[in-house]
Amino acid sequence: MDEITISRAIVESYMKDFMGAMETDVAIAGAGPAGLVAAYYLAKEGMKVVVFERQLRIGGGMAGGGMMFNRIVVQEEGKRILDEFDVSTKEYQKGYYIADSLEAISTICSRAIKAGVKVFNLISVEDVMIREGDRITGLVLNWSAVSWSKLHVDPLTVRCKVAVDATGHDAEICSIVVKKIGPKLRTKTGEVMGEKPMWAERGEKEILKNTREVYPGLVVAGMTANAVFGSPRMGAIFGGMLLSGKKAARVAIKLLEQG
Ligand code: 48F
Hints:
There is one protein chain. The chain is α/β, with parallel strands linked by helices. The protein has a single domain, classed as 3-Layer(bba) Sandwich (FAD/NAD(P)-binding domain), CATH 3.50.50. It has nine helices and eleven strands. Helix 3 packs across helix 9. The site of ligand 48F has 29 residues, from helix 2, strand 2, strand 7 and helix 8.
């Protein structure tokens, strides 16, 4: 056993993937359920996809289920997506299915990676690149440890044809766009309108309509979609996150086809 060989293997293999991430079809911020589901369906269609996740662990809010009870609930349409991923579900009551949140998120992540998605954890998206007449053309990255340590270190940039903001409740990429260039999102106010109080049924209904291109080259998915368009949160029902991820993939593919 040679420690230097182990070190070389890790650095070389990582760098190869990181270099590959410099130019992609779709770059996704956030490896929560919405981001990972979007990534999976994009990769399945042959797109080159990368996901950048701030935290050490993937999965965002899914692993924690509801109030740390590690279970999630999905409705019929959400169950169909879990079936596609081969995640087990049990009918709790007509129209309500329960799944183990750890099985769900680990399986979704595993299937995404096996489909060709490159997931980079411990990297935060801290800015965007806007070119070609008001269009997102890339994401600006830094090690999460840099901001956690309150260091000032300049970032690096990756180019993408389409970016997806799947950063959850804080809609971080959309907020960055508004902060940097003003209220130019395709919302009523042009700004991030902010998520409304818990209303599971409305939140789940509106998330699909809200999952769309919110600025040229930028698609919103998951809780970000509801936060940006001012729709309610929905708590520990996760069907909307899965359906939104799948729709975000369709929206991104359409944008890629349009060129
Ligand atoms: O929060 P998160 O799980 O968002 P989601 O996929 O799902 C929402 C549900 O978990 C739940 C819910 C269900 O009804 O409401 O809350 O929409 O995952 C978002 C991920 O993005 C990461 C963050 O660490 C989390 O894992 N993230 C946030 N900001 C950044 C980021 C950033 N600037 N760069 C990289 N990753």
